[in-house]
Specification:
CATH topology: Rossmann fold
Radius of gyration: 18 Å
Structural class: alpha/beta
Distance between the termini: 39 Å
Strand order of the largest sheet: 3-2-1-4-5-6-7
Largest sheet: 7 strands, parallel
Shape: globular
Helix content: 40-55%
Number of strands: 7
CATH class: Alpha Beta
Order of helices and strands: HEHEEHEHEHHHEHHHEH
CATH superfamily: NAD(P)-binding Rossmann-like Domain
Number of domains: 1
Oligomer: single chain
Length: about 270
């Protein structure tokens, strides 16, 4: 069946940069953009030929590699989908470096190359819902550079609790998205984020391995885990011209998990 968003070709003629395009949500996002009429510039550390018009192989934990990528990318992209990320089973420094520091560095340095009216979409997570309790740490990481990550992790004990690095990276990403709601408004460039709950991708097992019973208990509040097909159309929607007045917003896409959490938190 052809869905309405496919029929309308909401990304017709647009060129979108998609990080993490080789698997999971990134791969499905690339496919969705193509079906919606767009062109895809893919960025991933792995090789892929699926749904990309041009591919750049880059290790996003390497600042110099990102600098080279920024130099190589063409001018005039209409959107940036920051999908790439690593799971909480990796060292805390790697998680913070890739999921937060690299994402911010790439985005901020790509702004001059983006077209006026471009849309930036960050893949956050339900794991970031509790950002209000991490404001001091988030403020402390505002100017965090690649070389500062190890000291930051040590200073805040982020490596002392299983999964904390991932949760913090997403908390900070949600806040950074809100903070930059109007940063580039003189050029009409907007930024939003999406916070999926558990999604059935190759790294779902990493979350279960890290969070154990917490992960299983959380999944009991849903009818099923999400799929990349649940998330990619929301990315495409935010990349489209239909969302020009949505700015600095985080959209939950979690089968109702966020609503369950907030109702329980407030006795509702």
């Amino acid at each position: 069946m052809t869905t309405r968003w496919q029929t309308k070709k909401i990304l017709e003629g647009k060129t979108i940069i998609v990080t993490g395009c080789a698997s999971g949500i990134g791969l499905e996002t690339a496919r969705t953009i193509k079906e919606a009429g767009g062109n895809v510039i893919g960025v991933d550390r792995d090789m892929t030929t699926e749904y990309v018009d041009e591919l750049y192989r880059v290790d996003l934990s390497d600042k110099r590699a990102i600098q080279a990528l920024i130099m190589a990318l063409p001018m005039g992209a209409d959107g940036l989908a920051n999908i790439a990320g690593v799971p909480p089973t990796l060292p805390a420094e790697t998680v913070i470096r890739v999921n937060l520091v690299a994402l911010k560095f790439l985005t901020e340095n790509l702004i001059p190359k983006l077209a006026d009216g471009a849309s930036i979409v960050n893949l956050a997570s339900l794991a970031g819902h509790n950002w209000r309790n991490s404001v001091d740490q988030i403020k402390d990481c505002e100017n965090l550079d690649f070389d500062d990550v190890a000291e930051f992790v040590r200073r805040h004990g982020i490596d002392k609790q299983a999964g904390r690095s991932y949760f913090f990276s997403k908390e900070a990403l949600v806040v950074w998205t809100m903070q930059n709601r109007w940063t580039w408004r003189d050029r009409g460039i907007r930024m939003n984020s999406i916070s999926p709950g558990p999604v059935d991708t190759p790294i779902l097992k990493d979350f279960v391995a890290t969070l154990g019973e917490r992960a299983r208990a959380d999944r009991d509040t849903m009818d099923r885990p999400g799929t990349p097909e649940d998330i990619a159309p929301i990315v495409a929607f935010l990349l489209s011209d239909m969302t020009k007045w949505i700015r600095g917003t985080d959209i939950p896409a979690d089968g109702g998990m966020a609503s369950n959490i907030f109702c329980n938190m407030h006795g509702l």
